[in-house]
Amino acid sequence: MKKLINDPRAVVEESVEGFGMAHADLVDVHTDPIFIVRKGAPVAGKVALVSGGGSGHEPLHAGFVGHGMLDAAVPGAVFTSPTPDQIIPATTAVDSGAGVVHIVKNYTGDVLNFETAAEMAQAEGVSVRSVLVNDDVAVEDSLYTAGRRGVGGTVLVEKIAGAAAERGDSLDAVAGVAEGVVRNVRTMGVALSGCIVPHAGVPSFELAEDEIEIGIGIHGEPGRHKIPMEDADGITSRLLDPVLEDLEIKSGEQVLLFVNGMGGTPLSELYIVYRRAAQILGERGVKVERSLVGNYVTSLEMQGCSISVLRLDDELTALWDAPVHTPALRWGM
Amino acid sequence: MKKLINDPRAVVEESVEGFGMAHADLVDVHTDPIFIVRKGAPVAGKVALVSGGGSGHEPLHAGFVGHGMLDAAVPGAVFTSPTPDQIIPATTAVDSGAGVVHIVKNYTGDVLNFETAAEMAQAEGVSVRSVLVNDDVAVEDSLYTAGRRGVGGTVLVEKIAGAAAERGDSLDAVAGVAEGVVRNVRTMGVALSGCIVPHAGVPSFELAEDEIEIGIGIHGEPGRHKIPMEDADGITSRLLDPVLEDLEIKSGEQVLLFVNGMGGTPLSELYIVYRRAAQILGERGVKVERSLVGNYVTSLEMQGCSISVLRLDDELTALWDAPVHTPALRWGM
């Protein structure tokens, strides 16, 4: 195992410290317990968004803290849920009195810990609404989940709900927007290689030299099936077809197409996947109105990608286009 | 070898096609020969910037085509210089009559081909100035170079010279700004693993399980020396110390600190390197005024990073801060 780290047990702490130094204009980093808040939070009168989860998926979530997106991010240990004693102070720190929306990826640990934190924060007088992201069509239940996992679509939920909060929507309205995105986004991923959790030091799973895993989760947990290696066009169909079927996309509809790298795949390859995905959508009469290509929800150095499709309407498109200024996503300002 | 590709010989073509589809609002893609131009180019009265080089370093260069940065990018085959028959039409396509600056990374093939193209374009009535980027302090001459190689600092040259062109500077002035950046930026990189050129199918070089290469180039060509694996703080010193020494940075000066991923290294690890680099600069009394962390000048899926330091003055800082809108770098608009 070769990693650019020091003590494997200090990876999250040191990485977050560096993140805070690089983006001191945008965020404040709290270290005991660890959480990251938007500079100047709480923003008077604004509903706050808090998300979090295991580390190892960077830039998710800390990279999305800032204007028009998250007010706080709570990183757990690598691939491990953050604890309520982190989530509670993050929640109270960013509440302006207008309430807080928790955006929770559907993993058993995350769900439990955010639930506990929401109850405790509410006991302290903070109104909390929780929105569960479960966009992965690959499996119904998984190693770490009852129900579908929350994966790449999370970044779209955070961007669009963040824009709703920024324009002044109420707590119920922001939660409603987030739930609307969840209803209209689906994702499926593929792994070409495993990844190595720093303190474990061994690959979380193994793939043979000619084997890939279709429907992989973002922790290297099993997907639908292992198959022999195929070309990019074939793999793209295997990911996109179930997404479109599940979303029941029809000719004439408009979508956002998001090709997300898992961390170790060159950008050039993501564009080869994007090319075929856009062609398939075109053949079906679906209009790609917006796109996003890059490494946004990763699994350490895993090679592979996921494809997300979000059904757009004028409202979601306008919120997607709204200005955002975070370390990892920025436009309009 | 597992890659998300189809025909290994069609990698650049298909990737650029997907890139053009994803960013149709920003760029136009020409396919025969291949080059990418800014939407709406030539921009009346504006000096144009053209860069290019071997593919495999994405988002460099095509990802930096757009407002405030490049007017055209010319991708060669993977790790292979583009040819004059690509560079010439790219140059003439974006010339408004105000002239064109070629930004050329110092590799023998790139230098020769851009030189030939500049002569041919000039014969067609285009005023061309060439600026050579040679920021790599690791080696004096290399496998592919007479003199120092052009590496990570290239993105800083393109951003800052692009801002000068956008504000209306003359051809000589834009070239002068670019040369000023080159004089004030230095870079050094490390590889933890090799990378695989698609049509070759085998690693370009091998590193043992406990071995890293200090001073690596962006094509996997040899650096200063192979050493046993060290921790991130130790590696950071090995990269940053020669950079600061060569740049003769003094206490009280202001810099931009750029930690660049080679493609296969998680963002969390880049921030661990950033942390130590910023600490070292702080200990020396150097003020980190601006920062950039991420995968901007890559070597396919290579694991590793480079550290660049750019000495800032008010002029360079203002040009760095100026609005930019490209697929891979965007702010202020």
From TrEMBL, chains A, B:
Keyword terms: Glycerol metabolism, Kinase, Transferase
Domain DhaK: residue ranges: 7-331
EC number(s) from the headed UniProt entry: 2.7.1.121
Pfam families: Dak1
GO terms for cellular component: cytosol
Pathway membership, UniProt: Polyol metabolism; glycerol degradation
Catalytic activity: dihydroxyacetone + phosphoenolpyruvate = dihydroxyacetone phosphate + pyruvate
Alphabetized InterPro entries for the sequence: DhaK_1 (IPR012736), DhaK_dom (IPR004006), Dihydroxyacetone_Kinase (IPR050861)
Quaternary data: Homodimer. The dihydroxyacetone kinase complex is composed of a homodimer of DhaM, a homodimer of DhaK and the subunit DhaL.
Full protein name: phosphoenolpyruvate--glycerone phosphotransferase
Species assigned in the record: Arthrobacter terricola
